[in-house]
Prior knowledge:
Largest sheet: 7 strands, mixed
CATH architecture of the largest domain: 3-Layer(aba) Sandwich
CATH superfamily of the largest domain: Type I PLP-dependent aspartate aminotransferase-like (Major domain)
Strand order of the largest sheet: 1-9-8-7-4-2-3
Structural class: alpha/beta
Amino acid sequence: MSHVVLPREILPADGRFGCGPSKIRPEQLAALADAGTVVLGTSHRQAPVKNLVASVRSGLSELLRLPNGYEIIVGNGGSTAFWDAAAFGLIERRAQNLVFGEFGGKFASAAAAPWLEAPDVRKAAPGTSATPEAVEGVDVYAWPHNETSTGVSTEIRRVQADAGALTVIDATSAAGGIDFSVTESDVYYFAPQKNLGSDGGLWFAAVSPAAIERIERIAASGRYIPEFLSLKNALDNSRLQQTLNTPALATLVLLDSQLSWIIGNGGLQWADARTHESSDALYAWAEASAVATPFVANPADRSPVVVTIDFDETVDAAALAASLRQNGIVDTEPYRKLGRNQLRVATFTSIDPEDVRQLIRCIDFTLENS
């Protein structure tokens, strides 16, 4: 496929459609500039930074509609750090891990720690979802709300299992973009660089009273837990509006601004409607196309925030993505380890549905003129 120059009038106003670090709105960058002399380069143990942490925790509590007893905790590192922290301080004996993409598999690997019983791993083919099943002796049931690598989204519903078992949800690419009931989970954890439009260096989790009790009990059990990966440390420090080590301050500022924007527009219900508007447009286009089809065959499994589109052998999707990139439309390539002839398009909350419609026009124009 040769490079196609796209007419200016069909270009998106913003060409960022990546599923990794996501589009950051100009208003967030302005907030970061405003915060430059107030919090950046200042002590994280003093009021300005603590107030920022408190504002983020309060905003997340409001966005996720936390009931009494649930808390927002924050820790250093990203989701990878949380997986290891969960193996040390959340899984008591054995986890059940649903694996239907890259990120569910990474938590399953962490749950195979030598001090734990081997996890009960339920795998499904990429593009499909797996279902939890109550198993005697399992005390953590874990799966992604949204699988970033494949574009599969799942229902969040508490597993009716042994008394005390926890439902633990990876929400990195779902939080702030997909509506759900947080009471159906005990731990809803995420890094904030997708719908929440922020950067790396921190993880957040909405935790239930049962999860808090588990964290405190394991911490007091004598199990070896590295200080950096201690969920009890994260819990205690969060209650002081701080983190164990210096937090990523720019991440907090960007997140605080994004939370205010989403909540001000109507919260999670508004964000969910916005991401569905964008993703529905792409799925409808693919279903009507002669050369493309949604990778996720079951409409009930299709993600509203990560859209994966397969192309037939007449289209070189890599060349299509490269041509789009030369026109300033970036990061539509598929997940590198999936190895499919497809595009992967983020429809996160920050992405304007009109820009998604323009992207579709650009794809059509490129296909017709290559």
